[in-house]
Write a structure and sequence with these properties.
The complex is a heterodimer of chains A (155) and B (199). Chain A has 155 residues and is mainly alpha-helical. Helix content of chain A is 69%, strand content 0%. Chain A is built from eight helices and no strands. In chain A, helix 4 runs parallel beside helix 6. Chain B is globular and about 55 Å long.
Chain lengths: 155, 199
Amino acid sequence: MNPPDVIDAAAGLAPGERLHAARRFRATVVEATQASHDALLFQPVDGLTRADRLRVAAHACEAAGAAELAAHYRARLTALPGAEPASAALPAMQHFAATLTTDPRHGDRAAIESLKAAGLDDAAIVALAQLVAFLSYQTRVVAGLKALQAAGAAQ
Amino acid sequence: MSSPAPAIRRNGFTNQTLDWASWLRPVDVAQATPLQLQVLDESHPQSRSSAYYLTLAHQPLMLRHRSTAYNAIMYAPGGLPRAERELGALVVSVTNGCVYCTSVHAQRYAQLARRTDTVEQVFDDPSTAGSTERERAIARFAQAVTLRPQSLSPDDIAPLRALGMSDEDVIDLLHATAIFGWANRLMHNLGEPVVPVAS
């Protein structure tokens, strides 16, 4: 059984609806977006637990004002079997995530060095950066679909 | 290969080809796993010599799904014309201050649109850029998606519909602008643009 598509759920799109169908004009995008979500959050990464990734995701979505997606990541954290406790590196990861989310112009080499100092290796930093950058895409797609939904059907 | 476009340099942005240096250690092609090599080749024709793709190859499955989404959003046939997707990408990249992404998508847009006047306008001020009403509407929507996504409303959709865009077209533009929220954050936060040494 396939779990529900995260963007459809957050934007309130149900099968049979106009925008649910319009999204499937780009079925490859819908599938790759969901596959990205699944890999970024749940694929094993040395030195970066699933629980910390879900904590970072919820934090970044809250920083972005994306309430539905923040609730999604909180719920997935609560439902995670054997969720690991927060690691010592979580504050550095949360800081990196919030800055990258709210103003990507502030990203700099020092931010990457602070993650290394917190114990993340290069592969874990790539996973974390991919996750946070993906969330900036995911929150925008949801926000745009909600606006399109609120606009009603085209005349 | 196209001939080099006339140089445009404004506000710290350029349409000239730049290199990119990683702040992490890119994967060494000679040491790469078969999966890493496969995903690199799926992602971009020159990825085996790209510091950017070799950095992202540390997580090959994450790169694979990103590249599938990116390539479908920017290159798939039908729907919104590709030049207009590139205009959205260009406006977002300037708005996010990603000099490297801006140089790439200024070139792609100019190749598809066969002119550079709008590129100059985007470098000057993306909020007012556009040589036609349609370009101005695309640029304004791309800025709204980038700067105030949580206040997007039917008022942001109406100008696109007034130009004849279908829901599928609007979703294409939404995807092309949103994915540069993703791409810019990687390119601008894992490394930095480098001016190539003259050959």
